[in-house]
Inverse folding.
């Protein structure tokens, strides 16, 4: 079980993925590997969290002839994930949905014998709430139109790809939601996550939206 202090977590289980979980974001996962079945079971039992980190090299799933820890590398920071929905449709299979909480930076990480990574991490401060500049208002307005469109089509709240509250006046929140929704390469989504300035991240999203044809 991870040990939590005010600013650090020791022995945090990690889930390296070919995607990125942003704070406030939703992440559905299908779990079938033994190492992660045990991890999810422990998180549910202890009401705990695990860390999602973006893979730089390696595979999400262990392969025959796995080269070991040297074949799997990931970003040095990530997001705490809390399980909010759980289903086990058959033995050896779990379907979960996670909510992104706070960000963290790795201090050290080691892979255990059964293949699960654990890390000591420093929790980071939440991103500052910054108003959206006038020239980037269209980025927030497009996201607002998408939310309204989904609501008008009768999409149930639990099925929405975006979880309320809808903070359409906050740079980081709008940039993060678009970073999740747009069909982006893993490397680009990873770079957006690593962009420290929420305003700059929103500017980058605005450039991407200008080159993306939206169906609304």
């Amino acid at each position: 079980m991870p040990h939590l202090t005010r600013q650090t977590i020791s022995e945090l289980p990690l889930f390296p993925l070919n995607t990125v979980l942003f704070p406030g974001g939703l992440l559905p996962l299908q779990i079938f590997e033994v190492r992660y079945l045990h991890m999810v079971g422990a998180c549910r039992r202890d009401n705990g969290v695990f860390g999602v980190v973006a893979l730089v090299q390696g595979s999400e799933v262990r392969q025959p002839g796995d080269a070991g820890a040297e074949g799997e590398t990931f970003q040095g920071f990530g997001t705490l994930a809390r399980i909010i929905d759980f289903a086990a449709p058959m033995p050896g299979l779990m379907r979960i949905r996670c909510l992104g909480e706070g960000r963290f930076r790795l201090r050290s990480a080691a892979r255990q014998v059964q293949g699960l990574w654990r890390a000591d991490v420093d929790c980071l401060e939440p991103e500052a709430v910054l108003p959206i500049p006038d020239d980037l208002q269209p980025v927030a307005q497009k996201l607002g139109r998408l939310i309204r469109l989904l609501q008008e089509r009768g999409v149930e709240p639990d099925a929405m790809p975006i979880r309320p509250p809808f903070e359409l006046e906050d740079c980081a929140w709008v940039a993060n939601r678009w970073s999740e929704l747009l069909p982006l390469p893993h490397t680009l989504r990873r770079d957006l996550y690593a962009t420290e300035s929420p305003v700059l991240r929103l500017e980058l999203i605005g450039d991407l939206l200008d080159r993306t044809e939206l169906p609304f």
The two ends are 46 Å apart (CA to CA). Helices lie at 34-46, 137-152, 171-181, 186-194, 198-210. The CA atoms of residues 144 and 168 lie 7 Å apart. The chain has five helices and seven strands.
